[in-house]
Each structure stands twice: as C-alpha cells, then as structure tokens.
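thought: fold this chain, then report.
action: predict
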Amino acid sequence: MALKLRNTMSRSMETFEPLEPGRVLVYGCGPTVYDHAHIGNFRAFLFYDLVHRYLEWSGYEVRFVVNLTDVDDRTIRGAVAEGVGIAEHTGRFAELFLADSGALGIRPVDAYPRATEYVDRMVEFITRLLDSGHAYVAEDGAVYYSIARFAEYGRLKGIDLSTLRAGARVAQDEYEKEDARDFALWKAATDEDERAGAAWDAPWGRGRPGWHLECSVMSTTELADTIDLHLGGEDLVFPHHENEIAQSEAATGEPFVHYWLHVKHLLVDGRKMSKSLGNFFTVRELVDQGFDPASIRHQLISAQYRKELNFTLEGLEASKNAIQRLVDFESRLDALSTDAEAARTDLPTLADDLLEEFRVAMDDDFNSADALAALFTFVNRVNGALDGRPTVRAGDRDAALGALGSVDAVLGLLEVARASRAIGDELAAHVEERIRARAEAKRQRDFAAADAIRDELAEQGIVLEDGPDGTRWKVVR
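observation:
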C-alpha cells in the first residue's frame, strides 16, 4: 500500500509521489517567537514530527525545514514593551520553543531559519516581483503584491478572485483570515520598528519584510523553488499560504508545492485553544502539574491531524495511564526468561501483524489514531499470549521487542517516557538503599516504617512491586 495524502489544494486523497525518487523536501510553518508556544501550537508541531519520522521510517531521505518568525507586529511590540532589541526578545522564546520541542520528543529538523537572517534575500525576491509587474511601490515606500496580477489567486482556499476588491491594501501582520486583498511584501519603517531594531534599508525605502514573504524566501532558499510537502495549521490556509503561492510562483515561474497538509485546531473543553481566549496550556505548565511529556505527546497525537481533538485534563490522565501501560509492557518483555526448549508462541506473527497494521494506518494520511489502536491491540494480544508462560524462546521475545521498537521510532512514546523518567546513578543508589531499609523494617515486623518508605518513594515517582524474586521498582513520573 502506498502513502495517501489529503491534499488541501485538490481537496482529495492522492497517492504520494516525491519529486525526486527516494528524497522528500518538507517545509513546516513554525511559531512566531513572541511568547511561549502552547499545546495547540504543539499539536501541529507534533504532526510535523510524525511526518518526519514516518517518511524516514519508510526509507526516504528527508530534508525538513521549520521556520521561526522573529519579526512581525507582535514580536516588535513585545521588544518595545520590554525595552530590548528584537533579537534579544525573540531569542529567548525561540530557545524555549526548542526546549519544549525536545521535551516532547520532536526530532530536530535540518534547519530552523529565522526571518531576520534572510532580509537581503527578501529584498532580492521583492525586486523580482517588482520587475515582473506583480508588485508595486506605495507612496510611503511600502511594497504591495497585486493579487489581480496573479490569475490563479484563491485556488488553495477555493475563492473566486472576481469577488475580491483588487487594489485595497492589507498592511498589518494580524488580520482576519478571510481578508484577502493586496498584501504587504515590504512595510515602511515606523518609529516602533526602529526602536526594536527591526528596520532595514531597501532600494524603495527603509522598512521590514511582510510576514507572508518570509516563508516563501526561507522555503525556496533552504529547499528549492518546488517542494514536496508544505505543512501548517488550518488557520494558515488563507491568506498566508494563498499568498505564499502567489508570490512564490510569480517570482520563480515554477509550481511552489505539490502537497499541502493542514492540521485542525485543538479544542479545550470544546472551545478553540488560543491566547486571545486565555484558555491555553503550555508544556511547562502541564509538566508542573505532574503530567510527563510522553503523556502530553500521546494526547496530542491521539487523533488524526485532520480530525477534531478536544483536550481535557481528564483525557490527559487517560494518556498518562496509556503511557504507563506501554512502559510496563516493555518492561515485561525485557524481563522475560528465555529457553531454547520453550514451546513456540504467536509472538512473531503478532509482531508482523503490528507492523502491517501500523503501516496501513500511517499510509492512510498519517492516521495516528489507528496507528495507536494497532499498537495497543498488539499489547493486549502479546500479554494474552504470555500469560501462564514462565519462559519463551529468545527469538519470539526479540520479535515482539523489535516490532515495538520499530513502531515507537515513529510514535516516540516510549522514547520520550524513557527520557523524562531517566534516573541518575545517585538516585538509583538511594532507591536501592531505601528498598533494603524497607526489607529490614519488614523483617523486624515494623510495618509502619516499611509503609512509610514505600510512601516516601511514591512521592518521588518510584513505585515498588513485591514479587517472589524480591522487590522491583519503576519510575512512573
């Protein structure tokens, strides 16, 4: 089965065929680094990560770029309010975004271009649009793109160009997504821009680039004039991505993107998560409330990217339990005793079934919900096959562990759980010492002291499990 994608441009499912066999170029619209990214943002960025991981899992060489928007109305306002330059203001939030991404297991991409590093190329790009007649200079030195000069404007969203008011201008970076008229490629510098250090010289006047222009220049510079996949949130379809298409294709004369994929908004208790509504959570806030990053990752990939996902703390608790179930399952497999003479099990067949069901799910437009269902069905089946078996053949155990590891290379749940639950040698020695003290207390029949040690470790996220072979322990958070 081949990978099928729901292309926003064609509004239909298409079989994925890369421009170059075996190699894929991907651009994802990244955050505007004026504040902490919230988990609504991270729903999109975790989808990017699934795309990245699954394409590589499928054998493709992937070049993946995610931009950081570090100059726009919001970043400039923030820098001025803080009394610092825009680079200092945005640099802090860029680092926080990358740290949160790492905590959630988002693999680093090949480049995180920042808009302010590409201003010279943006000036060159605008010059090409002026020379071709697709743009014009206003009296104040700003430059606008004339959508009337691009006959195919509106095809991504499905808008009839004749219904738009050609010639009217949109200068600000923040505006309603249905407002599509001539848009700013270059904005004349204001006093606020100058105070923030967000103004540059250009042949038509001092100013700064428009938001839409930034992504076109970074994509064509870091990847190519035509790329395979462009990813973003559903709110970017129009006008941001529509404008990217218009200016990119006018400047290069080539198709800009072959497949457009857009992630649906995250809801919180039934309402869209957004900073303007104040109903958002950051990764750090949730971790401070006791939720580990693997649980957050599970919750945010639990629905296919085009499906509605309603975030609740109750749902996050369920994800926490799901992660613990996976961790316990992997531990059970690791701890299995092996015997070359043990009876054969169904584990190799179940492993093959998991890999096939997982591939079918992910080939269906990156259906992470079905992929997770296949994984937990595998857990149930293997646990059932192991019940009552003191030993198994090493090959059977290794087949199950191999399939689990292969699937997790894409889903990343165990990978993140291990990283967030890693315990240093000093703490491990402390846990072992407390277990010995508890055993001695039980030997002395001081059960209150033994229970107090158990409770003490539980508060540190360490759970003890007593068995015929002694006491084992595990980290649960």
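thought: worth noting. The chain is about 45% helix and 15% strand.
final: tokens above.
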